[in-house]
Amino acid sequence: MHIPDLKIDDGMSAAVRRGRPLVFLATYNERSNIGALLDAILDLPIHCDVLVIDDNSPDGTGDVVAERAAADPRVGLVVRPQRLGIGSAHRLGWLHARRFGYSRIVTMDADFSHHPSDIPRLLHALDEGADVALGSRFTPGGKLDYQGWRLFLSRAANWLARKALRLPLMEYTNSFRAVRLDKLPLGLIENTANNGYGFFLTETVRMARQGLRIVEVPIHFRDRNAGRSKMPKFQIVLGAANLFYLVFNRQTFKADEVLGDALGDARFECGRCGKPYVITMRSNVRKCLFCMRASG
Ligand SMILES: Nc1nc2c(ncn2[C@@H]2O[C@H](COP(=O)(O)OP(=O)(O)OP(=O)(O)O)[C@@H](O)[C@H]2O)c(=O)[nH]1
Ligand SMILES: [Mg+2]
Q1: Given its phi and psi angles, is residue 292 left (phi above 0), alpha (psi -120 to 50 degrees) or beta?
Q2: pLDDT of 77
Q3: Among 108, 109, 235, residue to substitute to test ligand 1 (most atoms within 8 Å of Cβ)
Q4: CA 168, CA 157: separation in Å to the nearest integer?
Q5: Claim: this prediction has a pTM higher than 0.90
Q6: Neighbours of ion ligand 2 (CB under 5 A)
Q7: Helix (H) or strand (E) holding 214
Q8: Greatest C-alpha distance within the chain
């Protein structure tokens, strides 16, 4: 499968992009969901573009998206060499949205747990003045279809996060969100160190501590439509450690410490894989969000 690199200069004007939200999907083995999901997103009454970052799924998810991308300019695809983690895929999605000049991003799972029909409500919350609209399972009106152990785990994790972090939010770990990129300092999200599922808690906390206007929009979270869960059990332990870290590390984010210019300068091409997705981490290490290696 040949996948052409996405070009910033692809003929679409920055003004068009600024007006359209970018819906971002991370995928790993979602072949049974991705076609119908793209249909549902692109059939919405709002005009949006879609970016899929696939980690070279063995089930051929990337092939399905590549075919769609070839036929529809609203669909973009980045295929990374191997499975590199949901959090690192999201960080790359955010960086990509910035570089391409979008002013709003919507992030969601690609297994129909998050339903595209909720996207307009999230975007509406931004229109009403929010900087961040969190799709929330735990705010009044929200619903979560998990049962047994997973229901307990999800409820307990979000309750604990609220108490330990002393933040007024009910939802911390769900990836269904709409955000105004123009209200977020460059690097606030791209520069987090989480490559796994802990990314979403860190993202919420960073946005809240930045003083952004966050509203919770109730959503109905369904069990995945098809395919298998990807969440390894050790992510639960990592999640608890991450919460502990965030409670005690209250260092505020300083935009000028990181990234400098993250907007498509050739200097940000990776010395190893050649892709333009290098950022400078807080530790001053240059890291490529495409191949996830230190970039010389
Ligand atoms: N690119 C990329 N996507 C991933 C990776 N791991 C998971 N995903 C995607 O991230 C989204 C959420 O993952 P899920 O497996 O649904 O995780 P989950 O929602 O915690 O688990 P279930 O409730 O069982 O579905 C899905 O669209 C996955 O395909 C990864 O390592 N790389
Ligand atoms: Mg899921």
Answers
A1: left
A2: 96
A3: 109
A4: 15
A5: yes
A6: 109, 111, 113, 224
A7: strand 214-218
A8: 50
Tens of pLDDT, residues 107-159: 999 999 999 999 999 999 999 999 999 999 999 999 999 999 899 999 999 99
Residue 278 φ then ψ, to 5°: -90, 135
Q: Are 247 and 166 in contact (CB under 8 A)?
A: no
Q: Do residues 68 and 43 lie in contact, with contact meaning Cβ atoms separated by under 8 Å?
A: no
Cα separation, 173 vs 157, in Å, equals: 8
3-state secondary structure of 267: helix
For the segment 196-229, what is each residue's pLDDT rounded down to a tens digit?
999 999 999 999 999 999 999 999 999 888 787 7
Residues 6+ apart with CB under 8 A from 140: 218
Burial zone of 152 (CB within 10 Å; 0-12 exposed, 13-18 middle, 19+ buried)? exposed
**List of domains in the chain:** 16-252 (3.90.550.10)
d(CA 242, CA 247): 9
Ligand 2 center to 224 CA (angstroms): 5
What's the rounded Cα separation, in Å, for the pair 133 and 125? 6
Identify the residues whose C-beta falls under 6 Å from ligand 1: 26-28, 30, 53-55, 83, 85-86, 89, 109-111, 113, 224, 229-231
| pLDDT tens digits along 226-261 | 787 777 778 889 999 999 999 998 877 766 544 444
- Which two three-digit tokens encode residue 192? 């987090």
Q: In whole angstroms, what is the distance from residue 278 CA to residue 281 CA?
A: 9
Helix (H, G, I), strand (E, B) or coil at 92: helix
CA distance linking residue 202 with residue 182, whole number of Å:
19
Cα-based distances in Å from 121 to 31, 117, 133, 192: 27, 8, 9, 27
Which ligand 1 atom sits closest to the C-alpha of 223? Answer: 23
Residue-wise pLDDT tens digits, 15-36: 566 689 999 999 999 999 999 9
